[in-house]
Amino acid sequence: MVNPSLVWIAFFAPLVACVLITLFFLKCKNSSSLIAIIGILTSFICSCLVCTQIFQTSVPGQLQQSLTWIQIDTLTINFGFLMNPLAIMMLLIVTGVGSAIFIYSRGYMNEDPSSPRFFAYLSLFAFSMIGIVLSNNFIQLFMFWELVGLSSYLLIGFWYAKPSAADAGVKAFMVNRLSDFGFLCGIILLWSVSNIGQGRSFQFTDLVDVIPHINPGLLTVIALLLFCGVIGKSAQIPLHVWLIDAMEGPTPVSALIHAATMVAAGIYLLARTFFIFEPSTTALTIIAYTGAITSLMAAILAVAENDIKRILAYSTLSQLGLMVMALGLGGPMQGMYHLTTHAFFKALLFLGAGSVIYALHHEQNIWNMHGLFKKMPITGITFLIGTLALCGIFPLSGFWSKDGILALAFENNTVLYLIAATASGLTAFYMGRLFFVAFWGESKPIGHGVHAHEAHESPLVMTVPLMILALLSTIGGYIGIPHFLFPQEAPEGLNMKVALISSAVALLGLAFSYKIYGNRTDSDPLVTKLGGFYTVLKNKFYFDTVYGWYVDNVQQGVAVFLSKFEKEVIMRLFVGGLVKMARSSGNALRYLQNGIVQSYAVVFILGVILLFLFLIKFYALIFVLSVTPLLLFLMLI
Amino acid sequence: MITLGNYLALSGVIFSIGLIGVMTSRNVLKVLLSLELLLAASNLLFVAFSKFNGDYAGQLIVFFVILVAAAEVAIGLAIIVLMYRRLSTIQADELRTMKW
């Protein structure tokens, strides 16, 4: 049986690390990173132990433990965890991939003077994500959801002196807040209708019984509102804009955001509360199409991107779109499977990119990279494995999980299948482009202070996590993740037709990119080939432009109006009015203080008489006596 | 026959004289004298009620009051002396700088 205290340790270890670093080790670079790594490793080891304990029983059940956190009348909010196979899988990904990234960060952030702060944030981030994974009710989940938003803001804007990084942090935070508003509305709406006898509840286990009793139309609304939160966190269209800018943060952060945490949270939420979405066909359809469109759009945009990290960011968007689509098609298993393998190879790719960036002293443009394969063999090979896994090449992990999604789409909806297949082909193309441009060919020095020719392999602390992740990306398809996640469902056989088609598409994409980029040129041949469309791509389909216009013209107008209203009406009229009233009455009344001791004595005596009359209830006299002293005083002045 | 009522009336009269004296006299010395009248009136009340109720605690309190009155006069006179040194007057309404 599962030992609950292990879960609690896994839950809070990173928080302890964060607090320790913040309180005592903000000046110690070495020990702060060690503490953070120990924190996340503790968490990881505990999760592994819990995992083995869960699977000791033949039918893994679920374990729930919760404490009452807030109790107001009938509103009860708990703080606890709900452990089931899905949660333990996600917990393993978060802590496992997280550990690799933490260790890698020790090397990557070595030169940064404020790295202790970085590790504190990183631990906070891990803690918030673990909180999302383990939460057993919506309010706790929402709290950690916001904490993830906060810590991502801190990490993306880690180099806050750089304006673009600070802006990117703010943007990520704002976009997430926007979507969280819908999410919160959904939570409250669901809570308000969750009374079927034993009172309202936020708990997932209670809500499972409630869902069949809810009016289908209302349920669709609730599902879509909850999906709002997913749109923000998992960066689906139209709120995907923050994810690309989030690349301003340090590379390990990008790896963490894109692989194990943050964006995975949205998919995880969908899978964990799938019972809410399942009955509503309309909501599922909308979710599926949102995912598919995001996937395709991101794949197209990645083709025109030159920044190594941004290309990877687009590929994340694209893969997230696929996962959301899988969930929309009613396949939480396929979605979570892909999430798992994606966590492996995307973390690998980002850390590989980080290794390159580290070696090239913060050069991120792929056109300034040349033949890195020979200079950095370990990074090169692991990056290649990641690329192939992402493209879905047999027999790497990406092949199996992506095939599951494509097969699901193939069986259910041809349009979605075509979109997803196109996106997969494009994925192979742009990943091939990235690989051939940056790693292929001869390494040669090129002008304007670029260091491609003097690149060297990164230290062991960075390459070992790469190798571990590469191993996981390779074997991820064979360790029975789907069965692990959903033990009740029989493992499906491979859909040969779909597998062959997608392999062909992926190979075609790679071949095409080799044809264009195999012979390295100094600039992108696509610029001329695509012509006007390239400008559209460069402007990211004008999402940012439109949002910018909206913010500048519409929102700014409202904001200015509200600000004026606040200043003029609320501050000047109400607050200022009160102040003026107090001041002028004070001005009028201070003449009562005339400095003559005896007049004070008169007032005092009259007061005593008044009190006396009040006690014997002589109201008429009280009135007369209370008016006369005033008159008396006015005469005295 | 002198009854309790007579004492109360006398006390009331003395108290009123004192009160009016406090409120109307300009001379600080007179104010101080009037204050003494107030105390004397209340002392008279204490003694009268003490006798009436047969409880001698009232008379005990009178001694305390006399003690306090003596102390008060000492301080009051000292203040008046200082006031005279500073302002060369002991008119109460000359002391009106402590205002708005």
Lay out the secondary structure.
The complex is a heterodimer of chains A (637) and B (100).
Chain A: H1 4-24, H2 29-54, E1 63-72, E2 75-83, H3 85-108, H4 115-134, H5 138-156, H6 163-192, H7 204-210, H8 216-233, H9 241-245, H10 251-260, H11 263-272, H12 274-277, H13 281-303, H14 308-328, H15 332-359, H16 372-375, H17 377-391, H18 397-412, H19 414-439, H20 460-475, H21 481-485, H22 496-517, H23 526-530, H24 532-538, H25 543-589, H26 597-615, H27 619-636
Antiparallel strand pairs in A: 1-2
Helix pairs in contact in A: 1-2, 1-4, 2-3, 2-4, 3-4, 3-10, 3-15, 3-20, 4-5, 5-6, 6-8, 8-11, 8-13, 10-15, 11-14, 11-15, 13-14, 13-19, 14-15, 14-18, 14-19, 15-17, 15-18, 15-20, 17-19, 17-20, 18-19, 18-22, 19-22, 26-27
Chain B: H1 4-24, H2 28-53, H3 57-87
The helical percent of chain B reads over 70%
Order of secondary-structure elements of chain B: HHH
CATH class of chain B: Mainly Alpha
Shape designation of chain A: elongated
Biggest interface, chains and residue tallies = A-B, 11 and 13 residues
SSE class of chain B? mainly alpha
Give me the number of helical elements of chain A.
27
The number of distinct β-strands of chain A equals 2
Quick one: biggest sheet of chain B? none
Notes on the protein architecture:
The complex is a heterodimer of chains A (637) and B (100). Helices cover 73% and strands 3% of the residues of chain A. Chain A is mainly alpha-helical. In chain A, strands 1-2 form a two-stranded antiparallel sheet. In chain A, a hairpin with a 2-residue loop joins strand 1 and strand 2 (75-83). With 100 residues, chain B is an all-alpha fold. Chain B has a single domain (4-94), classed as Helix Hairpins, CATH 1.10.287.3510. In chain B, 78% of the residues lie in helices and 0% in strands. Chain B has three helices and no strands. Chain B has helices spanning 4-24, 28-53, 57-87. In chain B, helix 2 (28-53) packs antiparallel against helix 3 (57-87). The chains are: A mainly alpha (637), B mainly alpha (100). Chain A binds chain B through residues 590-591, 593-598, 601-602, 605, and chain B through 19, 22-24, 31, 92-93, 95-100.
